[in-house]
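Weekly structure sync, notes
Attendees: PL (lead), two postdocs, one rotation student
Agenda item 3: pending single-chain targets
PL asked that the sequence for the first pending target be pasted directly into the notes so everyone works from the same version. It is reproduced below exactly as submitted, 266 residues in total.
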Amino acid sequence: MPATDLPLLIEAALEAGKIATRYSGTQAQRWDKPDGAGPVTEADLAVNAMLEERLPGARPGYGWLSEETEDTPDRLSRNIAFIIDPIDGTRSFAEGARTWAHSLAVADHGEVTAAVVYLPRRDLLYAAAKGQGATLNGQVIQASQAAGLDKAEILAAKPNLAARHWRLGEVPVFERAYRPSLAYRMALVAQGRFDGMLTLRPSWEWDIAAGDLIIREAGGLCSDRTGLPLRFNNSHPRLNGVIAAGADIHAQLSAQLDPDGSGISE
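Predicted structure, written out during the meeting:
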């Protein structure tokens, strides 16, 4: 249940922060995953080991999906599952930056019901439970309800502005900003620091599950690039991009995006 799962996630996230911050990012051992899947450090693995012991131990009936654990079909037979990114923003962590996060979520029949995004180096703990609102360090947060996309500040990587992603190749005007952790980007939208965020490439569930609930509980909307609600614990745990914003900005971004990225030839 969300009311009991959220305290469990918060405790686990705080412990994850203690483990990760024992490592100096630039000195932590680092490896590159096969097939260009990105880096992993000894801190990612240490945090994952703790979480994989603590969380399923507390909820033995839940499934488990984590970036740093080999996936198995077992979770698909469970109605409820943990969806975990031990460190989101591993490159930032390895560079000694502070913009990396622990992203922890519980999904029940595909819907996230409890979530935490924690940035220990910035002392920021975002949390939400279904029907209970979203908070930052215990204080209620609300997503921006800005109306004009041309004056909005949107978190997005530069490739999202390629003409092929937009209807007739017409890229809308907005102010672009960027943060390396996808979970942190989503949390900043929930906080109202930015008016929206989008990522148009296929996105792993563990990067976005926690942020999805935190944004929705803060009064924002979160969908895939076609405007469909996000569903989690899929057999292939990758979703078709993310659009997150208040209602008006979300509608404007959705209306101008080409659903399949073929708006114009490059």
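Discussion points:
- The longest helix spans residues 2-20.
- The mean pLDDT is 92.
Action: rotation student to compare against the earlier draft before next sync.
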